[in-house]
Amino acid sequence: MFTGIIEETGKVQSITKDKIVIECSKVLENTKLGDSIAVNGVCLTVVELLTKGFTADISPETSKITILHKLKNGDIVNLERAMKADGRFGGHIVSGHVDGLGKIINCEKKNDFFELNIDLPSNLAIYTIKKGSITINGISLTIAEIKNNIIKVAIIPHTFENTNLSFLKSGDFVNIEVDILAKYVEKFLSTSDNKSRISLEYLQEHGF
After folding, report:
1. pLDDT score of 23
2. Higher pLDDT, residue 190 or 71
3. Which residue, of 19, 44, 89, 182, has the greatest Cβ tally within 10 A?
4. Per-residue DSSP letters for 24-43?
5. How far apart are CA 105 and CA 193, in angstroms?
6. For residue 51, what are the domain limits?
7. pLDDT for 83-103, tens place per residue?
8. In this model, does residue 205 exceed pLDDT 80?
9. Whole-angstrom distance between the N-terminal and C-terminal Cα of the chain?
């Protein structure tokens, strides 16, 4: 499990359809073979530790539904180690299992902040609410506004400067993981034998 707080950015040294080598430093501290590291929000397993980086395998399913297959040598990726049992929650619950891709419409600087607009497919947009959490390339962010399937998030300078958001441009795709709590709520409400008086309308009326 992760929290969506990026520890550092790494550089892709090499990538094939089933393996990626990343140059990095901070996330190597106390890391062992078999540990999990989120790469642009994708939970990958360390299969080889290098002096200045690590190697991870990429499954066909991961390649299919994430932007990893679009990466090339030299690209910058966001990195986060799995959360320790006694660690702090800095963001929100992030599984590292990407749900799909979003497309960047634009990113505009507003005074000291940045506003990022992303077009989501409808099957992901249904899990978003204003002030709700969403994971974009592994970054835990808060949705400031929703219009149709387009979400707007406000980026503070620290996040913009210390993640790969500063390298992205209009038309680029990003990994999206929606709030897992929203998916559990939908599952609960869609169960045919659900006898609870809690409905989608009830949750909306009470700010969920």
Report:
1. 98
2. 71
3. 44
4. -SGGGTT--TT-EEEETTEE
5. 41
6. 8-81
7. 876 666 677 888 999 999 999
8. no
9. 23
User: Quick one: pLDDT at residue 20?
Assistant: 98
Most confidently predicted of 31-35, 110-114, 194-198: 31-35
177 and 116 in a single domain? The answer is yes
pLDDT-derived band at 203 (thresholds 50, 70, 90) equals low
**What is the residue type of 35?**
D
Burial class (CB in 10 A: 0-12, 13-18, 19+), 94: buried
Residue where a domain stops, chosen among 30, 54, 81: 81
Angular region, 66: left φ>0, alpha ψ -120 to 50, beta rest:
beta
With contact defined as beta carbons under 8 Å apart, do 35 and 112 qualify?
no
CA 61 to each of CA 5, 100, 125: distance values in angstroms, whole numbers, following the listed order: 25, 12, 22
Question: Which residue is listed with tokens 């419409």?
Answer: 105
Number of domains within the chain: 2
59 in the same domain as 105? no
Closest CA to 165 of 81, 109, 111: 109
Is residue 80 a contact partner of residue 35, using CB atoms and an 8 Å limit? no
How far is residue 18's CA from residue 62's CA, in Å, rounded to a whole number?
9
How far is it, in rounded angstroms, from Cα 180 to Cα 98? 11
User: Is pLDDT at 197 greater than 80 in this prediction?
Assistant: no
Please report the sign of the dihedral spanned by the C-alpha atoms of residue 50, residue 72, residue 139, residue 95: negative
Rounded mean pLDDT of the chain? 90
